[in-house]
Every structure is written in structure tokens, then in C-alpha cells.
Amino acid sequence: MISTLAIRSLPEGPKAWFAGREEGVCDHASDPDHWKQDRKEGPRHFLDMEPYGGPTNLPRTLEAAQARVGGDYYRHGVVPWIIQDRWRDLTEAFREGDPAKVAFATAILGHYIGDAHVPLHTTENHNGQLTNQKGIHSRWESGLVERHIVTEDLTVLPAQQDATFLARPWEWLVAAHALVPQLLEDDRAADRTTPMAGQDKRRTQAYWLILWASQGPTVKQQLQLAGQHLGNAILSAWIAAGKPAPPSAK
Ligand SMILES: [Zn+2]
User: Fold this and answer.
1) Distance (Å, rounded) from C-alpha 82 to C-alpha 23?
2) Residue 197: which pLDDT band, with cuts at 50, 70 and 90?
3) Which domain of life is it from (predicted)?
4) If we measure between CA atoms, which residue out of 149, 163, 166 comes closest to residue 220?
């Protein structure tokens, strides 16, 4: 959904690179989740804020992160720096002039940008395990989306040029982190009013409807913002690469 929104958000110049490749981008958007057999991959998808004392004073470089928390810095997550690296890959792909590489780099960058908009990717309590709400991670980022959202329900927010794009991931993470307390409270409220069914403590349909009523607007907002921010990333990478035309159009 995020890559579809992003491609639709683009002006004609960069959009031309994706003609006939929209599906290819979507097909690869989940690839990084399948790379997690590599133990270094997991922390690329999140940034825990608690080890740094919360959102107000996050490290901006890996060196600063290491200086603050020592050798454990990697374990606390590195997603903003991975977004920077993958954005540079996309810029390079535009420079090389290879539409297949542009499509793949977009898919991968979009994955990590999406992760940076998920509130539970910004906290040590990433699965509600510290507040007795285990499973909330997938209930929020998969359960609600799969049950209630189709791409056509989402609004395309036009991509904007951003000359300082590389500074943005921290802002997205801080904004997502601010959504954590309400998200957890809404899950608890839905559980209080809808006892779980069966021995495996399945959530009932009523649980999902209540959680959707309270968190649905937030889920949609974060998807739309992630789509726009991936659009900004593509537009800015294309401009940084010198606004190249795709090979077929040359
Ligand atoms: Zn991920």
C-alpha cells in the first residue's frame, strides 16, 4: 500500500521510471522482513527510544549512539541510518539509469520508511510484552490493516521536494513514538470490553471492531504519511541524481 501511494504521489518526471513496474515494487516491499535469518537484519527495522532517554535527545549518528549506550547500540535499532543508506542506493540507481534497480531500491527503502511510521517500532515495549499486551505489534500493523484497509480507501498526499531529506527519519520516529500510549490504552480498552474466546484466547470480532474504531484513523494516517514520505524520498533522490529521464524516454 505504501509503495502504491508513493508512486501515485509523484510528479511525472520521477513517475515515468515506474511505468509498468508498480507491481514489481509492491512485490519486493516485504523482502527485508524475509532477511531476518541474518541476525544483523532485525535491528534495521526499528529504533528503541528508551535507551536514549526518550524522543527528545536521540543520537543522529551511529558514533553518537555508540558513545551514549556503548556496544549495545546496534541491538537498540538502527532504522534511521538504514533509511539514509537505502536512500543513497536509490539516488545511485537513478544515476546509473537502471529502472529495475530504481524499482528494487524503492521497494526496499519503502519498507524501512514504513517501519519508521509504526509506533511500536520506536519502543522497547514493541510487542506489548512489558504491559501484558503481547501480540499487539501484529494486531496493529497487520490485523487492523488486513481486516479493514484497502489501498483505495487511502488518500494520496502529493510528494514534496525535500533538500534535507536525510534528516527526516528522526522526525517520523518521534511522531510515531508519541502515538504509543494511546495505542496501548485503546488495546487495553478493547480487551476490557470484549473477553477473549476459546482456550487459545482469540480476540473476538467485537475486539477488532472496537480497536478499529479507536485506532483505525491512526493506522490510516500513518500509512498515508509513509506513502507521502516515500514519495518525498523518491522525488528528492531523483532530483539529487540530476532529474534523469528513464532510458526508454531518452
Ligand atoms: Zn520491517
Assistant:
1) 24
2) low
3) Bacteria
4) 149
CATH code at position 115: 1.10.575.10
Q: How far is the CA of 56 from the centre of ligand 1 (A)?
A: 24
Question: Cβ atoms within 10 A of the Cβ of 142, count?
Answer: 10
Domain count, the chain: 1
pLDDT at 170 over 90: yes
Measure 66 CA to ligand 1 centroid, in angstroms: 23
Using N-to-C axis directions, what is the helix angle for 205-240 and 99-115, rounded to 10°? 130
CA 2 – ligand 1 centroid, Å: 13
Range of the domain at 179: 2-249
Distance linking the first and last C-alpha atoms of the chain: 30
pLDDT exceeds cutoff 80 at 250: no
Dihedrals φ, ψ of 60, to 5°? -100, -15
Q: In this predicted structure, what is the pLDDT of residue 198? A: 64
* Range from 30-34, 119-123, 192-196, 237-241 carrying the lowest mean pLDDT: 192-196
Q: State the Cα–Cα distance between residues 98 and 246, nearest whole angstrom.
A: 8
188: which 3 cell numbers? 487495553
pLDDT of residue 171: 98
Longest dimension (CA), the chain: 63
Q: Which amino acid is residue 213, in one-letter code?
A: A
Q: Is the pLDDT of residue 200 over 70?
A: no
